[in-house]
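A note from the maintainers: we've had questions about how concatenated examples are separated. There is no special marker in the raw files; a new sequence line simply starts the next protein. For clarity in this README we add a label.
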Amino acid sequence: MILVLLVVTPILLVVFGYFLWQSAMNNYGYNIFGWGVLIRLLLAVIACFWSIEIGIFLLIIFSLWNFITTWKNTSLFIALFSILFQPVALWFAFVALNKLAKEIND
């Protein structure tokens, strides 16, 4: 049962995140997973290595910034869900880049 959850949960997150992104792109022409969003979240995560308090503070500020920007360009529904899925997208991008770096270095 746990194995099924470990396999199904990431697949559902990717599928729902894709439909959320597609809805924002088709209806509003706005990329909710743009480079700016990922860079802001990455800066907050990197700041956590120096000071957890500063990292959490930046994560809150950047998440609020992402929420307001997304809400301004799309709808409240998409903005609320994008706050949940933007860190997931950052994690998937980090894992993919990490695997790519390992393949290049090996």
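[label: protein 2]
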Amino acid sequence: MTNKIKTLKTREYEFCGPIGAERHIWQPSLSSMRSIVGALLLLFVIPGTVFYLLLTCNSEDASVLSVPGPLPPLETLWDSTAVTIVLVWISLQAVLYVLPLGTVVEGIPLKDNTRLKYKINAFHAMVVSFLLAGLALVLGMPLSYAYDHFLQLAAGAGFLALALSIFLYVKALTAPESALAPGGNSGNPIYDFFMGHELNPRIGSFDLKYFCELRPGLIGWCLINLCFLVKEMELRGSASLSMILVCVFQAIYVISALRNEEEILTTMDIVHDGFGFMLAFGGLCWAPFTYSLQAYFLVSHPQELGTLAAVGILLLNTVGYIIFRGSNSQKNAFRRNPSDPRVAGFETIPTATGKRLLVSGWWGMVRHPNYLGDLIMALAWCLPCGLHSYSPILLCYLFYGPSDTPRGKR
């Protein structure tokens, strides 16, 4: 019965969905989206952007308006130890994922009205991961290795993301048509490889896309921040207020995402987007190695932050978090059950796909309150880096700015 349900061919091309939970990074116009050349270019541009930003943040002036130099030789980017560390990290998260911890919930109905089961234990995985990191500190293991070999670790993560993407595409070629993703079923191998050909690729009950959505990247992001904080303490004897604020703000963000892990099941990543290079690279490389750039920047560019400025930044982050968490909670409740008492009286409007959108509560104030909250928090993360450097402020826009996109209009 399931195999008889077909996934329609992709008619509108788009680049690209969130590189992480609900992120919008590159979003060209519809005309350029129809060009397969665009997908091919992004296969090189996205990894290139990661390394450009890493090199820029570690340069003397840390400005994206100047070319960082000298560029490291390509052969120095490959480090077997770094690749092994990334592989061990991903494997650890996979083991923690399959352990009998947490609860099991059902996702929203698929086209055939079946529901996939998902294990909710990402927060448990983070707790165990940081207990192990604490043990490593006690045993004297050099956590500052992450700072000293940041480029090599990023290269290793990018390589593993590419290998996973190839596996996913080959696997999708044998998947039934009903299992293909609406947005990655164009028939063009380059485009489908990039967007993701299969919607919910699984090995047994192990959901590959769901696993990569939060665990290796977001937990890894916090662990990398911890390593940078340790490095700063090694260099200067104590952690700066700027570093503490960045690490605490971002840890709160990640903990919130993991504590509300079930909400990811109603996002476009899970519901619509296939699992291909875009999300694989985003989860394994983009998220941990670019979201941690503020802490990376502060190690080599220490910033003095006054008490008044710190309080202002704290209030800004709090406002952003309240908007972000409140709007996402309303959206998730409505998508799961429109009759939920929390949203039952809210106004809605129909869409071209037959679904309905909230236009009251947080969603009646601005078009995308969740993106607004993201943007405000991102600004709060960047301000401890100071205003004299272009890079951290640019990252704020790069991560969260372009939300009025074809994807948002759906």
